[in-house]
Amino acid sequence: MRALLPILGLWLVTLGATPSARAQNPVMPVELEGTEITEHLGAKLPLDLHFTDENSNDVTLRDYFHAGRPVILTLNYYECPMLCSMVLDGLIKGLSALAWSPGVEFDIVTVSINHREGPALASAKKKTHLEALGKPTAEKGWHFLTGSAENIKTLADTVGFGYRWDPTQMQYAHGAGIMLISPEGVVSRYLYGISYPEDTLRLALTETSQGKLGSVVDKFILYCFHYVPSSRRYEFYIWGAMRLGGVLTMIAVGTMLAVFWRLERRGGAHLPDNVAPPTDAVTRA
User: Could you tell me the residue range of the domain that residue 17 belongs to?
Assistant: First the structure.
């Protein structure tokens, strides 16, 4: 069975994490039952849930939410032999190319799904990943938490993250993905797999920040593109493009009408209706 774990892990990455893939592959191995990620877009996180941070401090999720700053939420466990490291390494690769940094434009909260793990493991994992990321501000922006089985389950159920303990292998089976949470604590976007390209992260953070992050170009792109879980990227969205085209057409027409109106007013100003031409005065004299 241990030899099958890499295969099962990759199965989760490529199939089990996306709704469309589950629909196309309805038969799931027994070992993976209960490990799906079910999207709960719009769900509000229980921000008063208590956890323990990497420094053994008692914290709540609310401590990591700040005005205008979205949060990337990952559910992993620190002694995971394969898939968790692949997810976090993929996240680090995408973040390394991103101009923004944890602790400045956004925050990251990583919560262990294994209630047996404690702050020591969380601290070691944070040190390893911060060194790999290489962004100084990430020290205050990427948080590694542990907690009780009840609170972990409450958070996981809220975001639709399935996981199951395998007592035979002494490991957790779970999906591969991360969640984007708005500054108000609302689930905004799911990104799946073990690869998170810089452009996908940038657009997802821009979307989740409700326009507070991102350039004008990023915001323009979001009108015409939307995230497709099956392809794990933002793809062209025809209806969004049509709506944007309609808005731009109205702006163009309005601008033209305003220009014509101003030109008409300027032309009439040369000879007001209530002022007689000078030649009339000379004739009457």
Answer: 2-195
pLDDT in tens, 107-163: 999 999 999 999 999 999 999 999 999 999 999 999 999 999 999 999 999 999 999
CA–CA distance, 6 with 36 (Å, rounded to integer): 17
Residue 73 contacts residue 91 (beta carbons within 8 Å): no
Cβ contact 34:162 at 8 Å: yes
Q: Which tokens belong to 100?
A: 């923004």
Q: Torsion angle, CA of 194/199/202/203, rounded to 10 degrees?
A: -100
The whole-angstrom separation of Cα 179 and Cα 161 is 10
Residues contacting 278, CB < 8 A, separation 6+: none
217 falls within a domain: no
Taking CB atoms within 8 Å and a gap of at least 24, the contacts of 236-245 are: 244/220
Domain-embedded: residue 139: yes
d(CA 165, CA 154): 16
Number of domains in the chain: 1
Closest of 40, 180, 39 to residue 108, by C-alpha: 180
Closest Cα to residue 94, out of 35, 159, 178, 4? 178
Cα 164 to Cα 25, 34, 38, 259, 269: the distances in Å are 20, 6, 15, 66, 80
241-260 confidence digits (pLDDT tens): 344 444 445 555 556 655 65
Unique residue bearing structure tokens 């949470």: 181
**Residue 144 domain-assigned (yes or no):** yes
Residue 236 lies in a domain: no
Instruction: Enter the pTM of the model.
Output: 0.71
Q: How far apart are CA 56 and CA 122, in angstroms?
A: 9
Domain containing residue 182: CATH number: 3.40.30.10
Q: Which of 42-46, 63-67, 148-152, 265-269 has the lowest mean pLDDT?
A: 265-269
